[in-house]
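Posting this for the archive.
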Amino acid sequence: MPDSPLRILVIEDDAASRAALAQCLREEQFVVFAAADGVAGLEIALREPLDLVVLDLMLPKLDGIHLLEKLRQRSAVPVIVVSAKRGEHDRIEALDLGADDYLTKPFTVRELLARIRAVLRRTERESSTSITVGDIAIDLDAKAASRHGVRIPLTPMEFEVLVFLARRRGKLVPRDQVQKLIHPDEDRDVSNVVDVLMLRLRKKLGRDLITTRRGQGFIIDA
């Protein structure tokens, strides 16, 4: 696992199952968020910069399928569906809507952890030591970015935001997720801070690398 703890959201309406999953994941050194219904789960998923979501399908207020559909309109965060539904139709529907894996209940924690590791490997969260976007090379070990071998001076926060966007290359990252990354404990609107940071990044990296979609968020298409 990387040095910084991975952030996982568990959306499960059964209190005992939710508590057990959260505890087991915390023992694996994950930072765990938990929600008991679909509305609360979607709110957290869109607010927090997460690395993965564990999603039950049969949820109150907003079922897992509709939650997944809404989530995929705004986020590319990996999702593992866990459900008692064993039908092929349910599995196909979830995967077609953008789930990264589907695990039927009951399951062991060891199996869930194995699925989490596999999904994170596929999204290059575990094993990648470098990312290339356009003509920018990002060295995750050295925490540095360069262009044609020339280092680009970035502050720690600028580097963190660049990596956050680069890992989601080709996917729209909502503005509020970037804002939460910059100020995780700040509830008030600090969108002006996001704008200033993006302006600095564009000056250093080139104006075309990060695209702003007004009212939605940011995307790296390179």
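The chain has two domains: 7-122, 130-220. The chain has eight helices and twelve strands.
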